[in-house]
C-alpha cells in the first residue's frame, strides 16, 4: 500500500480560469527552440562542438521532462499518522491500515521526532512538534511503541518554546489542530511535559481562531494565495487575459492579518502577492495597488526586524523590493541568483511540511549552469568587441565625455535583446555610448559653432564632406556616429530587404535638434511649461537612436507603415517618458546647479517650491506611463509584433536599473560582477 503524501500545496480550486474557447495570445517560438535553431556559438567553438552541445542540452531537457512526469514526494509523517488512526471496519480495536502504523514505528528520528524537523530544527520546529504529536497519538491509540512515545514526548518537552514562536514556519491551522491534538492526547491518558502556562496560551490562541466565523473560507483562500499570485503574474506577463478580481480578498491589509495564523507572517506568500501587484495594467485595478502598498510595508518590516519566515529569503526579498519585479528584473541576475540558491531538497509548508526531492533537480541545475555559462562566454566576446570599437572610433579621445565602464552597457544589453540577436545587442551597446557622448557634448563640451556644425553634418549625412569639420572633437563624434550607424544600416538593409539608413539618420537628427532646444532654453534663461518641456525632453532621452537601429536587425520585417503606425509611436513615446522621468528624478540637483530645467524642477515651481511633492508627482506620472506601456505590450492584438513590444518593455526595464539609486553608475557595480562570475 502506498503511504500518504501531503497534497496541501496543490490548489483544490482553479482560482485562475481561462475558457478553452478564448483565443490564445500572440506568441512567437519558444526561446530555447530559437536558440537551437540559431546555433549560438561560443568563441573558438567548431560546428561539431556546437552540435554536441546542442545535443547534450536536448538530452538534459528530455530527461528532465520524463523525470518530472514521474516525480515522487517523501511521505508525510503527519498525514500518515492520521490515516493510521482509522479503525478496521469489523475490528475497531485494530488499525485498518497496519502498514501505516508500522511505518511510524520504523521512521522515528534519533531525537525522538517525526517529520522533517531534523533538516531545519529552527524553521520547522512547529511542524516537527505537530508531526511528532500526531504519530504519538496514533501509537497510543493502538497501545504500541511505549518507548517511541516516551522519546516523542521528551522531544516535545525540549522544544516546546517553538509552539508560540512567531518566527518559526507555522503549518496551516496549527493553533486549532495542535491544541485539539493536546486535548485528544489527554483523553488517551498522555501527560505532556509542557508548562501549564504554555498550555493555557495554546488554548487561548485556539479560542481566538474559533471566534472567526469565516475561518474555513479564509483557510482555503490562503492555501491557494501563493500559487494563485504566481500563476496570475506568469499568465498576465505571457499575454493571457486574467482578472485581478481573485485578489479582492486581500485588497486591505486587515483581511490578511485576520487569516489563518500560520500565514500571518509567511514571507513567501507576501512576496508572491507583492510581485503579483506589480503587473497592474489598468487604472481600475485598485486592489493590486493596495496589495502592493501593504505587502511592501510588511516585507520591509520583516527585513528590518530579521523576522523572515523562511530560510534563504533575505536576499530574495531585498532583491524584489529594490528591483520591482515587472519593471527592473534582470533575467541574467535572476538566473544567477536562482542557480546559487537552487535547492535539490525543497521543503514546502502547508498543513504539514513535505520534502520535494526529484531526480530531475540535479539535471535542472546542470541545465541552468550550462545556460548561464553560455551567456557568460557570449558576454566576454561582446565586451572584447566593444573595447576594440571604442578605441577604433576614437571615443577615448573625447575629453568631455563621461568615462562609463564598458561593461555597464554590455550588461544592460542582456535585458533588452535576447542573446539570439547579437547584432542587435551590438548596435544597442554602441549607440548607448554614442548618445551618451553626444549628450555630454551638447551639455558641456561643445561651443555654439561646434553644435551648429554637428547639426549640419548630420543633416547632410552621406554628403557631409560638403560641410567639413570645425574642430577635431566634432570630427571624432560625427565620424563615430556616421561610421557605426552606416555599418548597422548596411546590415539592417540585408535583414529588411530595403534601405533603412535614411530613417536612422533622421532619428539622430531629431535627437540633436531636441537637445538643442534645451540648450537654447538655458542660454536664454527661459523656463518652459511642462507641456513645452516634455516633447523635446522625451526625444533627448534617446530611446529612438539607441533602440530602433537594433530592432531592424532582429529579423521580422519592419515596414514604413509599421514605423508610422500610432501603436508604434505609443510604444516609443511611453518608453521615452518612463526613461525621461526616471532621469529627471535622479539628476535634477545636478541640472539645477548647471542652469538646466527638468520635470521635477518645473513641477516644484508650479506647485509652490516643494521638491518632495514634485518628486512624488513625477514618480506617479512615471508609474502611470509604465503601466500604460505594459498594457500595450501585453495587448492580445496589435499591428506591432509581440517580440518588438517586449523589446520596448525590456528597454524600460534597463532604464529602471540604470537609474536604480544614483546617476553616476556606482550602484550598478553591485550587480555587474554577476556577469563575470
TrEMBL record:
Write out the entry's keywords from A to Z. Lyase, Magnesium, Metal-binding, Plant defense
Output the superkingdom of the source species: Eukaryota
What InterPro entries does the record point to? Answer: Isoprenoid_synthase_dom_sf, Terpene_synth_N, Terpene_synth_N_sf, Terpene_synthase-like, Terpene_synthase_metal-bd, Terpenoid_cyclase/PrenylTrfase
SUPFAM superfamilies from the UniProt entry: Terpenoid cyclases/Protein prenyltransferases, Terpenoid synthases
List residues of the Terpene synthase metal-binding domain.
Answer: 391-624
Q: Name one Pfam family in it.
A: Terpene_synth
An example of a GO molecular function for this protein is: terpene synthase activity
Q: Does the keyword Lyase apply?
A: yes
Gene3D superfamilies, alphabetized: 1.50.10.20, Farnesyl Diphosphate Synthase (1.10.600.10), Terpene synthase, N-terminal domain (1.50.10.130)
Listed GO biological process terms: defense response; diterpenoid biosynthetic process
* Cofactor annotation: Mg(2+)
**Where in the numbering of this chain does the Terpene synthase N-terminal domain appear?**
211-321
Fetch the PANTHER family from UniProt: ENT-COPALYL DIPHOSPHATE SYNTHASE, CHLOROPLASTIC, ENT-SANDARACOPIMARA-8(14),15-DIENE SYNTHASE, CHLOROPLASTIC
**Annotated family:** Belongs to the terpene synthase family.
- The protein's name is Terpene synthase N-terminal domain-containing protein
